Amino acid sequence: MDETAETYDVIFRGAQIVDGTGAAPFAGDLAIRGDRIAVIAAAGTLSRAKQDIDASGQAISPGFIDTHTHDDNAVLIAPEMTPKVSQGVTTVVVGNCGVSLAPTVLPGDPPPPLNLLGKRDDFRFEGFADYVTAVEQARPAVNVVGLVGHSSLRVSAMERVDRRASTAEIAVMQEALAEGLAAGAAGFSTGLYYKPNMAADMDEVVALAALVGAAGGVYATHMRDEHVHVLESLNETFETARRAGTTVVISHHKCSGRENWGRSRETLPVIAAAGERQPVGLDAYPYAAGSTVLDVDHVDAEIPILITWSDAVPEATGRYLADLAKDWGCDVFEAARRLDPAGAIYFQMAEEDVRRILAFPGTMIGSDGLPHDKHPHPRLWGTFPRVIGHYGREVGLFPLEVAVHKMTGLAAERFGLKDRGVLREGAYADLVMFDPVAIIDTATFEAPVQPAHGISLVMVNGVAAWRDGAAGDRAGRFLRRGS
Ligand code: ZN
Ligand code: CU
Question: What is the tally of structural domains in the chain?
């Protein structure tokens, strides 16, 4: 180490370095110059920096990559991105579940689930390139990776979305997707479970995903079925990706519904076997409840359902559907109809499945947080510290370096993010300093808007984005595919 000639912007001294590759932590000093990591050295060997940070007792890891978000609009209208930077997230992947803010032309109000991203006026990007420009102008606190959503393409290209797209409509969607890929989109997503997307058959999806395959991008899917037909949906997913020649990411893998609980025992070996034949990834969030729009056709009377927002009955926010039904003297289905349009948390999973899926070696972490919900699922604020603090440290599902790998190096590899997700010389200085003994989520289903504990500093491209409980400067970038 040539310490005499070097002056660094920042040196973290005496940290426990968890480098994101899954390798065991080691004690060291880490120095930053500009937006990059300049050197990682044995503790006590670096001498000069403009700013010195005592990192003893602290871990330093790459910034967390939230592989599954609906932050398309949040990065523009709330660019400080507090729910994310406060939990150590430095990069978000937007445009999941078939819904992206761009490129979208709406004929009217956004149909569910597009309404999870914003109102009609928010969908103002005819081209994906315009969205990229808007992100760069907003300069959010986190880096942004973008997917183009199939439902967004469909509502733009088709007068009715309750049928398969025609050849001409597919051509329009292909053109829009190609523009998105040329502008730097990382790939394409479907939400085949949802009404604007469900009438698309495999041929339609392949016709679009093939463009992504040719460009070296990623195909992410909220599958047609995560309930009793989850195995059929997995097979559809693998065949679609194989025909399209793409890497596939199974979004928020789960086994939903009581009759399905425990079936990750079946799904994970199927995913592992597919991974031997073709590139397959998956993400999950660390909770046994999901959240999305409230749809009467998806209401399951067997499970608790908590209302996250309702345009029709705003005061129902934060209450359980069964209690509302009791108050109103109706059943839960009628109550759901009265609340529409609305959002909900569905307590639809078994804890044993959540644990098995989180511990699966290929599983990345994606919060699936819904940033515009009034009473959001706690995953919006708590996902990443919960994986480390609860499932890693308290439950013992995996050691710290494995938890960190799932949230960093593995995700960067899957999404092709160059020089991110690992701590090494020359990589971008996206990093988190946290107390490995104290880090924990504090957001709950009752009180979901709470920053996590134990994170002292978050750096994005060499700039402090979060420090000692307060927002810093915003230095996020739009990360174009392959850059
Ligand atoms: Zn989804
Ligand atoms: Cu999602």
Answer: 2
Of 418, 448, 478, at which residue does a domain stop?
A: 418
pLDDT tens per residue across span 48-89: 899 999 999 999 999 999 999 999 999 999 999 999 999 999
Whether 111 contacts 195, CB under 8 Å: yes
Cα(28) to centroid(ligand 2), Å: 38
4-25 tens-digit pLDDT: 556 899 999 999 999 999 999 9
Question: For residue 253, which ligand has an atom nearest its CA?
Answer: 1
Predicted pLDDT of residue 482: 87
Closest CA to 291 of 63, 128, 120, 443: 443
How far is Cα 19 from Cα 464, in angstroms, rounded to an integer? Answer: 19
Please tell me whether the overall predicted TM-score, pTM, comes out greater than 0.70 for this model.
Answer: yes
Whether residue 149 is contained in a domain is answered as yes
Could you tell me if 180 and 208 are in contact, meaning their C-beta atoms sit under 8 angstroms apart? Answer: no
Q: What is the CATH number of the domain that holds 281?
A: 3.20.20.140
* C-alpha 222 – ligand 2 centre gap (Å): 7
| 310 CA from centroid of ligand 2 (Å) | 19
Among residues 395, 418, 441, the one where a domain terminates is 418
Q: Distance from the CA of 223 to the center of ligand 1, in angstroms? A: 8
Distance from residue 167's CA to the centre of ligand 2 (Å): 28
Calculate how far, in angstroms, residue 349's C-alpha sits from the geometric centre of ligand 1.
Answer: 14
